[in-house]
Design the sequence.
């Protein structure tokens, strides 16, 4: 991609606050973007071959949305955590194994997509994020869900297609969690905390494709309480 094309994109972005350059085979984050660090609200560099997000990402202090789906990122810089206005972060289809230590400082974050990475656990940093609505951690290598999940503020947590065999009972204490997706994991029925059914806010529990038959779930204590929440929610949206 030539400099003139990039220049045209930069000029448009200066007017609109949106820089979108997807599927162009970019191998690095365009450094020229930092000239617009106070203009940009949205950056979308999905479907490229970017291996590294440079520390200068921390300068985009007005950024609300950042998408880098389907790149080759193996790590994220700590500087990313300076983006106090960032509400949406899409990093599906990369090679991420963990999140920066300071990730909990992304205080405005509402939507986080990390599907198709190499995470092995639910990152503890997520528990500090007060405005999280949706967290997508599907298609990773997560094997267990730790106690810190109890502080997660998300409304929807997607853990489909992992290798989860253990879940902390603390998950039933999530104050806002309504939708929990656990399809295609390695869960035995005995490893599913019954308090999810009897004593949580969860009104949609998706557990197809685990090591038990769904009809066995219906025999568990608390299932009727879960169904009450499920039905009430359905009526609300009907």
Sequence:
């Amino acid at each position: 991609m030539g400099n003139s094309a990039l220049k045209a994109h930069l000029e448009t972005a200066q007017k609109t606050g949106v820089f979108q350059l997807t599927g162009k085979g970019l191998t690095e984050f365009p450094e020229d973007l930092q000239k617009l660090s106070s203009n940009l609200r949205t950056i979308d560099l999905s479907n490229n071959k970017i291996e590294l997000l440079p520390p200068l990402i921390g300068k985009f202090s007005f950024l609300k949305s950042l998408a880098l789906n389907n790149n080759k990122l193996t790590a994220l810089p700590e500087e990313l955590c300076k983006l106090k206005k960032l509400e949406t972060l899409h990093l599906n289809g990369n090679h991420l194994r963990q999140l920066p230590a300071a990730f909990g400082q992304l205080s405005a974050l509402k939507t986080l997509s990390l599907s198709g990475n190499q995470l092995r656990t639910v990152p503890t940093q997520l528990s500090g994020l007060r405005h999280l609505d949706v967290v997508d951690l599907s298609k990773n290598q997560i094997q267990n869900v730790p106690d810190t999940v109890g502080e997660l503020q998300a409304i929807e947590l997607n853990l489909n297609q992992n290798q989860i065999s253990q879940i902390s009972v603390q998950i039933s204490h999530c104050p806002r969690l309504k939708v929990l997706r656990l399809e295609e994991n390695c869960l035995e029925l005995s490893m599913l905390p019954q308090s999810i059914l009897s004593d949580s806010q969860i009104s949609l529990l998706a557990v197809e494709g685990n090591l038990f038959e769904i009809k066995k779930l219906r025999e568990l204590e608390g299932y009727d309480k879960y169904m009450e929440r499920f039905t009430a929610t359905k009526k609300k949206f009907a």
Observations:
- The chain has two domains: 1-97, 119-237.
- The helical segments are 3-16, 195-198, 214-217, 223-237.
- The chain has a mean pLDDT of 96.
